[in-house]
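tool_call predict_complex ligand=adenosine-5'-diphosphate
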Amino acid sequence: MATTARKPRTPKAKAAGHGQLIYTFREGNAGMRQLLGGKGAGLAEMTNAGLPVPPGFTITTEACNAYYAAGKELPDGLWDDIVSHMKQVEEEAGKGFGDPANPLLVSVRSGAAFSMPGMMDTVLNLGLNEETLQGLIDLTGNDRFAWDAWRRFIAMFGRIVLDVAGSEFDEPLEQLKADRGVKLDTDLSAEDLRGLAARYREIVQDHTGEAFPSDPYRQLELAVRAVFDSWFGKRAHDYREFNKIPHDLGTAVNVVTMVFGNMGTDSGTGVAFTRDPNTGEKTLFGEYLTNAQGEDVVAGIRTPAKISQMRDEMPEVYAQFEAIAERLERHYRDAQDLEFTIERGTLYMLQTRSAKRTAPAAVKIAVDMANEELLSREEAIQRVDPAQIVQLLLPRFDEAAKGQAQDRFLAKGLNASPGAATGRAVFDPDRAVAMKAAGDPVILVRIETSPDDVHGMLAARGVLTARGGATSHAAVVARSMGLPCVAGAETLRIDYRAQSMRAGEKVVSEGEMISIDGTTGEIYAGELPTIEARFEDEHDLATLLGWADEVRRLQVWANADYPRDAERARAFGAQGIGLCRTEHMFFEEDRLPTVQRMILASNQATDAKRRAALGAELSADDEEAVATFDTALAELERLQTDDFAGLFRAMDGLPVVIRLIDPPLHEFLPSYDELLEEVTRLRTLLGQPSHTDAVADTDAPALQRGLAKLFGEKDAARAMQLIQRPGRASVPEDDRSRMESELAEKEELLAAVAAMREQNPMLGLRGCRLGLMIPDIVKMQTRAILAGAARATAGGARALPEIMIPLVGHVNELAETRTILEAEVSRIVESSGQQVEYKFGTMIEVPRGALTADEIAQHAEFFSFGTNDLTQMTYGFSRDDAEGKFLLQYVDRKILPENPFQVLDATGVGQLMRMGVEKGRATRPGLKIGICGEHGGDPASIAFCHEVGLDYVSCSPFRVPVARLAAAQAAIASSE
Ligand code: ADP
Ligand code: MG
Ligand code: MG
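tool_result ok
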């Protein structure tokens, strides 16, 4: 096929300052994807590999951009260039474009660098008109074929280029089939098709007011323009926006000599993958249709046959195709997706591209190809997107069942946390807990979620919200729990009062089954069968991750608070626990009252103890506070000791980093607003003067507004009436005394909560600050950790506790905490007579901590970057406020490239990390440093951690396999 290189560039095009605007298939290659688009590059590569590709050429993406730059005018010289290339194609094909004696027909195909729905469809059979049609009939002696080509061309050109609705052409075709009493278009006669074509031309004339263009070059020009125009069509534009594909890439146009799959039963067209794109199995996978053209295979007009059937029907062609498929796969060193046509027994290749595949297929193909020595192991590692791995570990819906359940489809939201879940719809977190306790699987459905819903989420198999984005509370928490979540399904109308939701006509009430797919965002009524993933059964994944482990330098640890999570993390390959948040244990329902008693007494008790230590006499009230506090603390110590022992046992021989209490204490108490509301309600009902009375008369509108905020508009009016006429509230005597004692209790609690309330809790009394104010908590946790370790050791496990102090900004905070902690350790050692082993370290999550890491390292044996807080404080964003109010918009409007809470901000926050590493290790060479923020499971952030020299990343258990692969990819990338 080799011919001498031609000079395709017209002088005019050069003069206008364009690069070469057209490449023949022989001039291009696979590396020219940007310029020729994926399809053009593939056609060129196949041509040059000597595969049977019909002659043709590609108009470049630059030509498309020039067309736009010129206000939708073909750039200078382009048309002449197209014409001269058509002449070349005529020569190669031995036919003439518009020549009735031997007509050349072409297809016009769009093709951007990324395959993109919304781009123009392909026009086939371009170049037909009444004369060339007659030529085709004379030449082939097959008038049925010729009329078939002609009616297809008019319909396609009409729909795609001239914008006539496709249904205009479908209806007469269906009518004709009905009239003839046939099901398939292949059953229509030549005469039928001829009549249909005539009808089609009338339709075009009616809709456009012009005759169907008969000049082949005019047809070609219109088609090329239509491809260019489709680049900025709305669908294509929206698709690029959503997928963050730049708008200035442009699309190429491919002009390809037609070959005909509709010339009889020895002809056909098909689509095939070199490996099964669902399972990855090495077998030709695809479909074909005889006597058909173009998209008939996917259009569902006739049911296509499995590609394997071609082996029997056309053995020679099949063998040739099999060989080509194999060759292309070797050539591209990747599974390919192929399109082909057979014209009277001769095979033509029309497209090759890298095959899209499911996560299991991606892993299997990579491993198999390495075993076949088509790829090196390192290449295999790089072939799999770490994000895909999560999908392998989560339950998923059976695709076939999903296909059959389309009538039960309710809505589509954001795919916020992957995995499939089915359960009974529940609209209230308490109800979710109750139904779970009754043994029912539940899906928690909320308009949006807040920390008040977490217990309901814990009880649920999946979470569905109508509001909120990929970083909403629901999404973030669900991901951290490995819980499937669909967020922001805005078409759902959720009604808490009715305990139901509405999707169009369909209504789902509490207790009815629904199915949500957090991988795709789809929501169905009823139950869809799921396929459970079992890590131990994923042999190919195990192989791939095994290879990854040999390559990576970063260790992968996990964030886990419960033994159950730790076990899972370990099974996934975690090499330690990088973060155990002790306070999560406090949140458990049966423990919360104890925690609350401890907190409510903490200030008074701590103060009383200090005075007693100085010899002061304590009042009875003080004594009581101390007793309450100590009893609650002792109870928590007992519980935490159990927790820690379980964790150490699960992680036998591996380090476990336990962080001392971190959040502000009011998080464990009832909400201030709710208490205030309750107290106000009780006071009002009891007719007692409330602090609102003083303003009732003087500032009624302000009060009304305040009440509206508290109660909502409607109830506010009622409350206002009650406040203004308190005497009229009459309550029966029995109720009155009950309410009075309730009021007294609530008022006391309100006072306590009010005393702890902070304007900005994120920057308030939390982390090490809390431990320094209430040292007994630090001591209690230290005892529980060491006792837990001792118990695990006694049971034959090797416990390696690492105690981590949160939120240190000044070295003295750490030094002082260490003093408190070590004094307690000495006491334990003295009383038990046994030496205990532990490491003492800190989180680096306050910018000042990073800036003074050299000082801090004097007291820390390890660092762990808490990048959630570090990001908050570096940016000055409060995450909860930012993600709800403006951060998502920032990302949409490209003010920020990414949500910095998901992808580590390498330039800003990363600089602090780099500094922390350098300064820390300057003081203490070999200082062990990890990261335990959510970023520890994000592939891009992991690459950064590798680069700055961390020792490990710690992430949620489900992300451990992801991190293993990402860490290996980072190591490979940095060694290249
Ligand atoms: P898409 O981008 O949607 O895959 P293509 O440009 O690949 O569109 O065209 C779709 C189908 O049209 C091809 O798979 C092939 O069957 C048919 N087709 C395209 N060009 C030709 C041609 N020159 N001869 C025969 N069939 C063609
Ligand atoms: Mg195609
Ligand atoms: Mg923190």
